[in-house]
Design a protein that fits this description.
It is built from 13 helices and 13 strands. It is an alpha/beta fold. The protein folds into 2 domains: 152 residues, Murein tetrapeptidase LD-carboxypeptidase, N-terminal domain (Rossmann fold, 3-Layer(aba) Sandwich), CATH 3.40.50.10740; 147 residues, LD-carboxypeptidase A C-terminal domain-like (Glucose Oxidase, domain 1), CATH 3.50.30.60. The strands form 2 sheets. It has a 7-stranded mixed β-barrel with strand order 6-10-9-8-7-12-13, surrounded by 4 helices. α6 links the parallel β4 and β5. α1 packs across α9 and α12 packs parallel to α13. Pfam families: Peptidase_S66, Peptidase_S66C.
Amino acid sequence: MKISLKFISTLAISLYFSISSSHAKDTIYLISSSSAYDESYIPKITQAFKNKGFNVSTEYLNQQLSDFGYVNTDHERAKNLIHALKNNQVKYLWFVRGGSGALNLLPKLHAEIAQIKQSTPKVLIGFSDVTAIHYFINNEIGWKSIHGTTAATGKIMNAPVTTPSAMDEAPTAKANILSADENQNDVVNEIFTTIQSGIHYQGLLPLNSAAKQHFYEGTLTGGNLTLVQTLFSTQYERSWDNKILLLEDISVTYKQLDRLLHQILFKKDFKPKAIVFGQFYPSKTNDGERLIYKEVIRTFAEQNHIPVYYYPYFGHGKVNKPFILGGKAHIACPQDSDYCSIFQEKF
């Protein structure tokens, strides 16, 4: 059966407006719990979300630069985040940026677990240093969350304003369906598509024999490697059993990455279902540097009985595909293909 490009384009347009209309007048609450952000970005972020039909609240942005360059003191940052998590009016909590400092908030967050659980579930969106908060939310509160782009990036501030006529004229609608995973035209729409419909990403490269088995299933967890590693052997670390672990990082040399991966290789009682590596090489790089990072990961994989995959389309690079942390994920590897796919159902 032949499917015309016109049909595909029409389907994509319908999906876009279905998603947009279903979230019309929803409010995105901006928050920042890590490093200081550029306050001149906030009006641009606010306008970008309004262009998508959302209301925006900045009531949880209260930047009073700390001595360490965080948005505020540990106490104030924790208090602010806890207030947002307890607020039953909040549905979408989008982090402005990552950086560092979120790990410091875990003691105060753990002290409020019972009260936070009484609140309505929220969708937290962010990555990088937000990994520590995702880990708390997924493991202690039991909410799912989105590993995706923080708000203070060009991906958000320059998100296209799409009108019906523009959708008819521009090729982006069919490109989103037909192009490879590295295509990322509209991050905001992509994240809400993930929430409503789940994900299906092709192009995971299996790096060891264990990864070439037909099918794996587990709960998705992880994010930034530095934050994941920092949780090791602390009172806040939880079992990695039956988990599919995402790992990405930036500003880590290939030698440092090799050392970190050896720590994971030597770690006791570490039995995730699979590990999926995202981007580690710098954004401005060359083929030689990109390939040496890949080789470090491949060397780790070949020494490991855990299935290891390479998918450099999430992390701090040009493309940061969203995932549902705390949600079930399935990895399938067709026998006649060099690549595998990862699936998640809707939020």
